[in-house]
Amino acid sequence: MNQRADIVKAIHFLHQKGWAPATSSNYSFRESGQSNFYVSQSGMDKGDFGEAHFLEVDADGNPVNDSRKPSAETLLHCAVYQLFPAVHCVLHTHTVLNTVVSQVFQEKGCLELQDYEILKGFSGIKTHEVSIKIPIFANTQDINALSIELVDFVRKNDPELRAFLIAGHGMYTWGATVADAKRHVEVVEFLLECEYLKLKLKA
Ligand SMILES: [Zn+2]
Predict the structure, then answer these.
(1) Structural domain total, the chain
(2) For position 141, which CATH number holds?
(3) CA of 24 to the centre of ligand 1 (A)
(4) Residue 70 has what DSSP assignment?
(5) Which of 12, 89, 191, 203 has its CA 20 to 30 A from that of 6?
């Protein structure tokens, strides 16, 4: 298993899908048994992203022997790794659908997904007969405050959280492996499209 090669492949897939436009989005992986992790360099066009464009950061998001700037949202990756020791990959997308749907559902505070066969694409889910809540946080440029809000939310409400949305901004999800995290991105983006289409057909 080569996490670095796998995640670069996943990033190119996400970019080709149009889920990482205009240098947006960020990604990370953590090697087994480590607290440091590797996060994408800030400001890169994800179509040109390669294995050299990751930098090592410590568990608090500080670069280790590297003068490059890590992604501005590195603290959210730190929070996910801190909350979920089994997670080894975090992926963040900026898509038209997650941007719009998160704004439309923001007042409800979450997006509730149930009775969809594709929910089985989430690790550990074996049936469509479940209800998954994806919380929606307000967007902010204060990523430190948002990461504290996320940690609080998980501890109080959902220790098995699988993904979250930031209103008008994007989506985060993660997994035990790069393949799991990539599959979770596809599940959430598929479901956002379903929810969007349902609203449209009802209108
Ligand atoms: Zn973002």
Answers:
(1) 1
(2) 3.40.225.10
(3) 6
(4) B
(5) 191
